[in-house]
Amino acid sequence: MKRKELRVSKTYQNQNLFGAAETINGVPAHCANIAHTGFEPSAVPCMILATRLPAGPAISFSHIRHIAARNATITSTPTCSIWLCPKVIIPTGLFQWRFDWSLRMDYRTALHRGICGETTEYLCRGQQFRTGLRRRGKKAEVNIKTDYIDKALSEFSGYITADELYDGPFCVLFIVDNHKFNRLCYEVLDHAPTKEDIKRFFRRFKQMLDARGLKVKGITTDGSPLYPEAIVEVFGKEVKHQSCQFHVVKEINKDIIKAVAAVRRQLKQEKVKRPRGRPSGDRAKQIVRKNKKVQKKITELFEYRYLFVKHTLSIKEKKTLQRITRGLDQLRTLRLIMDEVYRLFDRRCRMDTALKKLAKLRRRIRRFAKLRNTLKKLFSPNLEKALTFLDDSLLPSTSNAVERANRRHRKMQKSIYRVRTLENISQRIAIDMQRDEYGVNMKKTISTLHWSRNSERRKTG
Fold first, then answer.
1. What are the tens digits of pLDDT across the range 115-161?
2. Which of 117, 392, 418, 460 fits a 20 to 30 Å CA distance from 336?
3. Distance CA 378, CA 248 (A)
4. What integer pLDDT is reported at residue 413 of this predicted model?
5. How many other C-beta atoms can be found within 10 angstroms of the C-beta atom of residue 350?
6. How buried is 160 (Cβ within 10 angstroms: 0-12 exposed, 13-18 middle, 19+ buried)?
7. Statement: 157-244+397-447 belongs to CATH 3.30.420.10
8. Do the Cβ atoms of 167 and 228 come closer than 8 Å?
9. Element (H or E) spanning 75, and its range?
10. Alpha carbons within 13 A on the beta-carbon side of 11
11. Where in the chain are the domains?
């Protein structure tokens, strides 16, 4: 529903709003020193405004519906003229304004600040306010393709990260500089992306790089099967493909937590069922004590389940882990396996050394059928791709840069609900990228101002 503007007609002293004639019976009148008197009904659909001037009464008409005001009298005393205009004649003019009746528009009569006199207000519908209606999306999209991309690629590092973001029926593809955290390219789809969509998206980005003589050295993705084939076909085999370390370890952590949950379910089956009420007899009391002990173990395994997947444990956390896993050797084995997984991503070793450690760990797990079924993610090819960064110190191991862009998009969608069409999503992303461009200069300006103010305080102090 559109907001409506209210037109207000106000009559004050020293103001002539309705354009009454400045000549009365051919005699020049004094300058407009008007005292409002009131409104009188008329037989025709118009309103008559009676105005008192020093030379005599004057009547002006306004083409709006009349408002009944019985016994209209003078509400302000006449004032003296300020100067004379004997030769100035201004023709009378009438304003054609739109009008309508509405039961929703009801406002109180208010006095005008700064000028004494009576104020009469009437309400009618007008044009919609244009404040805040300018949409900068189309202009921002043009700027992104020219000025923004030129500035972003001027400091291109050569290492990028790509990811897809699902938003209802739409999907947003992002490419972000993995060192500078600048969003370089995006595309909004109205369907789930396919390998052909990824190839077309990468080709468009490669054309932008070829036009500026730039090349891609490494790409980091989240391990999705959409990217390996497109990377080899578009950028070539010499480009390093890194699977995000965070996503790979997260999948392994899920398997470990599921294994701990399975142990809790087994412990719950060890509890002995007994009738309700207080225990009577030694056997019943023994069952109650056993059930409480088992329930305490289950509660601790749930409360401290994060200790099985945490990267580094303190001395206190190690003692807690030893206490809650007493009698549960399979859980201690899971913690040892997680320690070996974290050692694979140590920057101090090369990829060949890490692959040998991984092969040894897999042989160890294959000997146990139950453990092999639990830790299936350790045999995923993405784990080997997640070790590519060990041979390149400049290749980031995670895709945090593009995840940051995804978080900004999620936050924008929460605050602006209307952004749900393909065109609007594309325009809002362009505006957000433009804000990032302005944000760098804004931070520099703020830091410069703080530095100058602090220097002035040091001088005065």
1. 444 444 444 455 554 544 456 666 777 777 788 888 888 889 999 99
2. 392
3. 9
4. 76
5. 12
6. buried
7. yes
8. no
9. none
10. 22
11. 1-132, 157-244+397-447, 245-273+291-385
